[in-house]
Amino acid sequence: MIRCDIKACTGCRMCEVACSSRHFGAVSPSLSRIRVAKLEEVGIELAVVCVSCLEKPCLACPNQALAVGGSGQILLDDGKCDACMECVAACPIGAAGFHEGRPLFCGLCDGTPSCVAVCPTSALSFREDFRDVRLDGFVWPGSHPAQRRARYARFHGEPLRAAWQNGARIDS
Amino acid sequence: MTVYVGNCLRVDLTRREILRGRTAEDGIGARTWNSHTLMRELKPGVDPLGPENILCLAVGPLTGSGLIATCRFIASARSPLTGYLGDSGARGFFAPELRWAGHDQLIFTGASDRWLYLWIDNDRVELRDASHLEGLDITQTTVRLREELRDPDLQVAAIGPAGENLVRYSIISCNLARAAGRTGMGAVMGSKKLKAIVVRGDRAVRPGDPARFEKACRQLQANIEGHPEFEARCRYGTTRIMDSLANMGVLPAYHYRSTVFEELEKVNAEALRRGHIVRSKACYNCNIPCSRYNYTSYSEGEGPEYEAQAAFTVKCGSSDLELAVGVSNAVNRLGLDCISTGEVIAWLMECRHEGLLSESDVDGIDLSWGSREALQQLPEMIARRRGIGDLLAEGTRRAALQFGDAARALTAEVKGLEMFSADPRGIKGYALMNAVNSRGGDHYRGEPMIELTGDEELALKRVGNRNAAHRLREEGKGALVSYAEHLGLLSDSLTICKNISCCMDAVDFELAADAYSGLLGKDVPPEELLEACARTSRVEREFNLREGLRPEEDTLPRRFLHQPIPDGPSKGAMVDIGRLVGDYYREKGWE
In the structure, what pLDDT confidence band is assigned to residue A172 with cuts at 50, 70 and 90? Predict the structure, then answer.
């Protein structure tokens, strides 16, 4: 799956531009399957995208419209989806988008993700065997996807901030 | 998902009425639209801080597209600092969001009698009460709005206490530290009692001719990544120029009394990176993370860029870099322009050094060179208009009137706008740019950067004169500044970062025309873009003449004309302003 190295992410959102351009021929974060959570007041940025978590709560689709692909990506059967958006609401880290009545899941661009290719600091990386992430600790009923992305980024930023507190600087 | 260009929202703050309209037909984007709007709609001679002033905030057709670094908005109004055209741009992420919301220009008229913010959720636009935000700094305002609207991805452009208190050099800032900093646009926003603009945009920017547009995008990316300064800009951003300016002998040490700063290695780019930088940061869709996040023992924030770094160290005679970083963070939060604030403090220190002030003049604050007390206390006092801060909030030109002719002779401002942190005597193109451009003492209107790199071939290519690349020569500078101004206007209209377009020469009119044509899906030749910029340049000059500008104001402070640089590699340099300005007027075809 795609991972983001929080130390290297500059928050530029070139990944969002690449994603929406590749799949829609247009630029908008609302069309991107990867979204950058920016916590400006604490200096933390993190690109958030489906991590093919162990729990996969999105699969509890009432219409069985979702399945898991060979690389761990979530596949949508468009004919079965009735736009209930329960999958979008279920993702603990807000990594499922929606557009024109359909959920948007990262499909890994058939193994050559555009976001990884464009990332100017190589913060994003892709490996088939990144499949060990647990997200059950991030479940937050009643929240919005953007809030969940932000909380996920804040969690990953804590060790970084602790290091700064202890004197770590960019080159150390 | 369509190409949409030219949607304008007219927000009457007196009547709390919002109307939809179109941007000026004869513009190509942000600054051209704003300048034409002000020329047509603003009555001459109005109080810049009264309800009759008009505040325009615009993006351009390329903003929020896939073209690298098209991330800026331009805010324009009659400037409370200069009385002439005020405008300033901010990078970051606000501008693309406004574009995705479907609005290309906001025009604010009138003034509210209580604090409001404008909430733009795509097509839904409303004015909301902001009385609970009064007095909050820019970080607090932004965080609060994102919390109460339950969306941490919202983009917010806000003013701080400085803007609320009508400090004449207050800023409009987005992403906490991305400022439309110059000419006091924050004060105009404050005078209208508009605390913030909050945007959410979900629409998309789709190029009309994808092949042509993609080609331009790839070309720009190649120009940037192949540039000899690419690595250094990724590593240090603008702070890298402190060493280069020191090597040229144009650092403004001790407020232009010297170009040599003995403790340079304590305050330069490497010292900053080593001691206080924890992270690289980039603006929207940019492959150069030229910005940095700082973390010190008592504050944190984005920046500083070169101007804040130099203003609060070298210019004020301080080698305490951690203090300067803290001041930069404070100034950003308070909503003050770091250039004008640094210049005000450095000028006061020089006045004190010359014995022109007594301590009672400045509330007993120690104003010796590098004074920690002054650097820590004055920004807060200015933003809150406390004590001497109330006078300093008026800018150096007005403040100097209180301190007498000798103090006035030490100011470094043009038309009321405080100058940057470099000595114009050793860089003649920048000297001319500061003297003549349409917003007063400013280097960033367009960057005559060729004279800093000394690239003769590029000078020949751009302005037909190899001499223009020589920073100590007057030859060719009229053409160089005119070219740089047009490229600056192009960048301010298409909202491309000027560090990339102007300072790195990574964009020219041909590339811009490809991107613009590709986005719009119709052929617009480079000559047409150039003509649009030249036309706006004339309109801006006419605007300033209408507001009372006299040609003799196209000059620099006396010190740069009559006192040679005393030391360093540019020792002996002075500015022959008559020759430079005459050359520029000839280039423009002016009398």
Answer: confident
- Report how far apart the first and last C-alpha atoms of chain B are (Å, whole number): 49
Interface of B with A in 236-275 (CB under 8 A): 273-275
Q: In which residue are the tokens 């609401």 written? A: A89
Within B181-252, where are the H helices?
185-191, 210-225, 230-236, 241-248
B497 touches A at CB < 8 Å? no
CA atoms within 13 A on the CB side of B488: 23
Residue B428 has pLDDT above 60, yes or no: yes
Task: Give me the residue from A11, A35, A171 closest to B274, CB to CB.
Answer: A171
Token pair 């990944």 in the structure block, residue: A15
Would an 8 Å CB–CB cutoff place A129 in contact with chain B?
no
Mean pLDDT for the stretch of residues A42-51: 97
CB of B221 closer than 8 Å to CB of B288:
no
- Indicate if the pLDDT at residue B4 is higher than 80: no
Interface test with A, best of B136, B155, B227, B279 (most A CBs within 10 A): B279
Q: What is the pLDDT of residue B521?
A: 94
Q: Does A153 touch chain B (CB under 8 A)?
A: no
Across the interface, do B65 and A28 touch by the CB < 8 Å criterion? no
A28 at interface of B, judged by CB pairs closer than 8 A: yes
pLDDT, residue B501, reads 95
**From A14, A28, A40, residue closest to B203, measured CB to CB:** A28
The β-bridge relationship of strands B194-200 and B116-121 is parallel
Chain A / chain B CB contacts < 8 angstroms? 120
Position A147 pLDDT exceeds 90: yes
CA distance B255 to chain A (A): 31
Is A23 at the interface with chain B, CB within 8 A? no
Mean pLDDT of chain B: 97
Report how many helices (DSSP H) and strands (DSSP E) chain B contains, helices first.
27, 17
Task: Find residue B129's DSSP bridge partners.
Answer: B116
Instruction: Decide if B58 contacts B34 (C-beta within 8 A).
Output: yes
Please return the burial class of A101, using the count of CB atoms within 10 Å of its CB with bins 0-12, 13-18 and 19+. Answer: exposed
Which of B116, B281, B301 is closest to B198 using CA atoms?
A: B116
Pair of tokens at residue B56: 């325009």
Contact A38 B287 (CB under 8 A): no
Q: What is the DSSP letter of B336?
A: B
**Cα–Cα distance between B195 and B239 in angstroms, integer?**
31
Q: Say if CB B393 and CB B165 are below 8 A apart.
A: yes
Separation between Cα atoms, residue A150 and residue A38, nearest integer Å: 7
Tell me the pTM.
0.98
Q: Which residues pair with A46 in a beta bridge?
A: A37
Q: What is the ipTM of this complex?
A: 0.97
Using a CB–CB cutoff of 8 Å, tell me whether A38 touches chain B: yes
Token pair in block for residue B40: 């047509």
Decide the pairing of beta strands B291-295 and B178-180: unpaired
Q: Please tell me the predicted confidence (pLDDT) of residue B26.
A: 84
Burial (CB count <10 Å: 0-12, 13-18, 19+), residue A70: exposed
Q: What is the CB neighbour count within 10 angstroms for residue B368?
A: 12
- Residue from A5, A9, A28, A30 to probe the interface with B (highest B Cβ count within 10 Å): A28
Question: Using the 8-state DSSP alphabet, how is residue B521 labeled?
Answer: T
What would the pLDDT profile of B235-285 be if each residue is shown by its tens digit?
A: 999 999 999 999 999 999 999 999 999 999 999 999 999 999 999 999 999
Q: Do A27 and B65 touch (CB under 8 A)?
A: yes
Question: Contact B152/A168, CB-based, under 8 Å?
Answer: no
**Which residues 425-464 on chain B approach chain A with CB closer than 8 angstroms?**
none
User: Is A17 in contact with B1 (Cβ distance < 8 A)?
Assistant: no
The mean pLDDT value for B123-142 works out to 98
Q: Is A97 helix (H, G, I), strand (E, B) or coil?
A: strand
